TrEMBL record:
<feature type="compositionally biased region" description="Polar residues">
    <location>
        <begin position="60"/>
        <end position="70"/>
    </location>
</feature>
<feature type="region of interest" description="Disordered">
    <location>
        <begin position="60"/>
        <end position="148"/>
    </location>
</feature>
<keyword id="KW-0805">Transcription regulation</keyword>
<feature type="compositionally biased region" description="Basic and acidic residues">
    <location>
        <begin position="71"/>
        <end position="82"/>
    </location>
</feature>
<feature type="compositionally biased region" description="Polar residues">
    <location>
        <begin position="84"/>
        <end position="95"/>
    </location>
</feature>
<dbReference type="InterPro" id="IPR036576">
    <property type="entry name" value="WRKY_dom_sf"/>
</dbReference>
<keyword id="KW-0539">Nucleus</keyword>
<feature type="compositionally biased region" description="Basic and acidic residues">
    <location>
        <begin position="110"/>
        <end position="119"/>
    </location>
</feature>
<feature type="domain" description="WRKY">
    <location>
        <begin position="155"/>
        <end position="220"/>
    </location>
</feature>
<dbReference type="InterPro" id="IPR003657">
    <property type="entry name" value="WRKY_dom"/>
</dbReference>
<protein>
    <recommendedName>
        <fullName>WRKY domain-containing protein</fullName>
    </recommendedName>
</protein>
<dbReference type="Pfam" id="PF03106">
    <property type="entry name" value="WRKY"/>
</dbReference>
<feature type="compositionally biased region" description="Low complexity">
    <location>
        <begin position="96"/>
        <end position="105"/>
    </location>
</feature>
<dbReference type="InterPro" id="IPR044810">
    <property type="entry name" value="WRKY_plant"/>
</dbReference>
<keyword id="KW-0238">DNA-binding</keyword>
<keyword id="KW-0804">Transcription</keyword>
Length: 305
DNA sequence: CGTTTTTGACCTGCGC
DNA sequence: GCGCAGGTCAAAAACG
């Protein structure tokens, strides 16, 4: 019924809430600003978001910011993203950066299986009806647990190489956006990590990538293309097993936002005034590659010819 | 020929 | 209950 979760949001005006389709978290307090991890770990889900912020050059004090997020404060604008009306309140800096958002949660695994894949679970359930309902329930629950990380990258290509192999399993038109959203799934067996990729309608040069779940395997070594070579280079340093390197081959700047996981309540955690937005944006902007370079080799930052 | 992408249909959640 | 929008499936097509 209630899975204890710690939901954290890093939020910049860049990352629209909808990408996490998360409801406002009951609370975003309670994270433990003490450990340190890399973006790699971040992708793996075992992250300390505060550290993540640090890792990306975010002031630790930005934790205040976390509690300032309120998706409900402007549900329409945030949702519609159509910029047609109130776009001016989202200062989409032309010199866009990467926003990173995430939501942590315990479980994961397999939220993708919905209908047509009869999963051998609870054979004792008896009736198919109950089975169905049960599935739906479980699915719903699980869906909320998925840890997510979203970030925005300035890139000309939609699908950014991150070292893993992905298979596209869907594409959908996004309301109020001329750009479709693509759905990818990690091709590694038993890995249920998914990611969504879409282009910001506000800044077409910006690609919004949302990772969902955590890789439970090392980076495939049989990567086609250059990614594998690139990855073996450095990003995987920390842990042999935890590997979630992200490569950003095509962009220049990043800013990260952390989002709350899907919460179960509709509580607002506070107002999210525009001036805070701006403040946030500043804070989350990575001026140069600075700290990020610790994690991402400079070669990732090469610019598109 | 195996793998990935495309794409229309289907399912689910949510707001009205 | 209905309609909308997001998310997923899976058959067919495309690709290497």
């Amino acid at each position: 019924m209630s899975n204890e979760r710690r939901d954290f949001y890093y939020h910049t005006p860049f990352l629209e809430d909808r990408h996490l389709d998360a409801k406002p978290p009951p609370s975003i307090h309670g994270f433990d600003p003490s450990s340190y991890m890399s973006l790699t770990e971040c992708l793996h889900g075992s992250v300390d978001y505060n550290s993540l912020a640090k890792a990306f050059g975010l002031s630790p004090s930005s934790s205040e910011v976390f509690s300032s997020i309120d998706e409900n404060s402007k549900p329409v604008e945030a949702r519609d993203l159509d910029g047609g009306n109130s776009t001016d309140q989202i200062p989409a800096t032309p010199n866009s950066s990467v926003s990173f958002s995430s939501s942590e949660a315990g479980g994961d695994e397999d939220s993708g299986k919905t209908k047509k894949e009869p999963q051998p679970e609870n054979p004792e359930d008896g009736g198919e009806y109950s089975n169905k309902k049960d599935k739906a329930k479980k699915k719903a629950e699980k869906r909320q647990k998925e840890p997510r990380f979203a970030f925005m990258t300035k890139s000309e290509v939609d699908h950014l190489e991150d070292g893993y192999r992905w298979r596209k399993y869907g594409q959908k038109a996004v309301k109020n956006s001329p750009y479709p959203r693509s759905y990818y799934r990690c091709t590694t067996q038993k890995c249920t990590v998914k990611k969504r990729v879409e282009r910001s309608f506000q800044d077409p040069s910006t690609v919004i990538t949302t990772y969902e779940g955590q890789h439970n395997h090392p980076i495939p070594t049989t990567l086609r293309g250059s990614a594998s070579a690139v990855f073996s280079h450095s990003m995987l340093a920390p842990t042999p097993m935890s590997t979630g390197p992200i490569s950003f081959p095509h962009h220049q700047e990043y800013s990260f936002v952390q989002f709350p996981a899907a919460a179960t309540s509709h509580q607002n955690i506070g107002a999210y005034p525009q001036n805070v937005n701006q403040h946030l944006h500043q804070q989350y902007q990575v001026p140069d590659y600075g700290l990020l370079q610790d994690i991402v080799p400079s070669m990732f930052f090469r610019q598109e010819p």
